[in-house]
Design a protein that fits this description.
The complex is a heterodimer of chains A (116) and B (110). Chain A is built from no helices and 11 strands. With 116 residues, chain A is mostly beta strands. In chain A, the strands form 2 sheets. In chain A, strands 2, 4, 5, 6, 9, 10 and 11 form a 7-stranded mixed beta sheet that branches. In chain A, strands 1-3-8-7 form a 4-stranded antiparallel beta sheet, with no helix packed on it. In chain A, strand 7 and strand 8 form a beta hairpin. Chain A is globular and about 40 Å long. In chain B, strand 4 and strand 5 form a beta hairpin. The radius of gyration of chain B is 13 Å and the shape is globular. Chain B starts with a strand and ends with a strand. Classes of the chains: A mainly beta (116), B mainly beta (110).
């Protein structure tokens, strides 16, 4: 019954490595989101996408990029990982156009990334 | 900038008692609010939502109250159970995106 799947639950990477975090949703949702979650800071929006090949910056896009080649898949890319990108990464999706934030987000289980 | 926040970082509750989790928001333009529950090792899960034209909404064992006058949101959990131990987030929908509070840990004491 899993609806938002993040391919990696735990990753350990070295500084400077390129990192791909993959997310797939099976609900035919238009909108997909990437957040990072850090103690004391809550969830912060990195990037989101409301259509295939479309992307918009969230609140903390620096050091990240995204790719949405298919409606069901939204990838987060760290071109050159740094230690301050050690975090829990959460993918989410929702439906709707127009006021896109108006609908409930469904989250994946998260990907915990450690950068050494 | 405007943000969502929670008053208490940790709430310890005796099993069977009622829990109340509070959240203050500052964006008076927000018209939609959501409570999420996040258990250890899992992503946040939707609990209940409320729109700004309501002041109360009930679900199964949960009630959300919205006081727009003081920009306050609360989640009440009736007859708290061990499975309710989790971090609870409020979120507000303003400026065309969800803004999340930092989270409030609820610990249920058996």
């Amino acid at each position: 019954d899993v609806k938002v799947t993040q391919s990696s639950r735990y990753l350990v990477k070295r500084t400077g490595e390129k990192v791909f975090l993959e997310c797939v949703q099976d609900m035919d949702h238009e909108n997909m989101f990437w957040y990072r979650q850090d103690p004391g800071l809550g969830l912060r929006l990195i990037y989101f996408s409301y259509d295939v090949k479309m992307k918009e910056k969230g609140d903390i896009p620096e050091g990240y990029s995204v790719s949405r080649e298919k409606k069901e898949r939204f990838s987060l890319i760290l071109e050159s990982a740094s230690t301050n990108q050690t975090s829990m990464y959460l993918c989410a999706s929702n439906t709707g156009t127009g006021f896109r934030g108006a609908n409930v987000l469904t989250f994946g289980a998260g990907s915990r990334l450690t950068v050494l | 900038g405007e943000s969502v926040g929670l008053h208490l970082p940790t709430l310890s509750v005796q099993e069977g008692d009622n829990s109340i989790i509070n959240c203050a928001y500052s964006n008076s333009a927000s018209d939609y609010f959501i409570w999420y529950k996040q258990e250890s090792g899992k992503g946040p899960q939707f609990i209940i939502d409320i729109r700004s034209n309501m002041d109360k909404r009930q679900g199964q064992r949960v009630t959300v109250l919205l006081n727009k006058t003081v920009k306050h949101l609360s989640l009440q959990i009736a007859a708290t159970q061990p499975g309710d131990s989790a971090v609870y987030f409020c979120a507000e929908n303003g400026n065309n995106r969800l803004a999340f509070g930092k989270g409030n840990q609820v610990v249920v004491i058996p």
